[in-house]
Amino acid sequence: DAGVIQSPRHEVTEMGQEVTLRCKPISGHNSLFWYRQTMMRGLELLIYFNNNVPIDDSGMPEDRFSAKMPNASFSTLKIQPSEPRDSAVYFCASSLDDRGSDTQYFGPGTRLTVL
Amino acid sequence: GENVEQHPSTLSVQEGDSAVIKCTYSDSASNYFPWYKQELGKRPQLIIDIRSNVGEKKDQRIAVTLNKTAKHFSLHITETQPEDSAVYFCAASLDSNYQLIWGAGTKLIIKP
User: Fold this and answer.
1) In angstroms, rounded to a whole number, what is the distance separating the alpha carbons of residues A25 and A113?
2) Alpha-carbon gap: A89 to the closest alpha carbon of chain B (Å)
3) Interchain pair B44, A107: CB under 8 A
4) Residue B44: which of A48, A98, A106 has the nearest Cβ?
5) Which 8-state DSSP code applies to residue A97?
6) How many H helices and E strands in chain B?
7) Which residues in chain B have Cβ-Cβ distances shorter than 8 Å to A32?
8) What would the pLDDT profile of A1-44 be if each residue is shown by its tens digit?
């Protein structure tokens, strides 16, 4: 398996623009997580899907952020409009099921820079 | 809810020496404790984990110990090597709950 795939790997955009980050989880995994990582705040869970259904979006910072999982092999995280404080590395991770002990496999991340 | 504290934030050790990173958790119901390693510019990856029914687990040069009474667990790396340089994250969870509660991370620097 290729592991978790994320695109793009790097994104530079201007404030106010829409940004869409993409993720393909490991085949057969039922859980998908979107994280944001910054030096100041560490790893933050943004949203969690199980069987394509959003279970917990309490970490989504504000209405500018939205996430979808239309099928078991694809998820998007959208920021509209983007702001400089959204600059971070965004990781997608998947795990086999919904147990806390299921290993989370991270994608390579998308480094987002908002100018 | 669960809270995980990790110390130190930065640890510098001489190559060949041992390194110890400690984490404390607040929810006594937590029963699963993984450690992830993140090399510079890379993704976090699981390196070892322990469940609450076990006090210690080893895998070659790394080991994790758990003290349920004191609610803390530690990562031990022996005979450190340059490739051990990375940020290490501890986490805690309840097996019946999907969510990992992450520590803030420890930057481990191995001095040649």
Assistant:
1) 24
2) 10
3) no
4) A106
5) S
6) 0, 11
7) none
8) 689 999 999 999 999 999 999 999 999 999 999 999 998 889 99
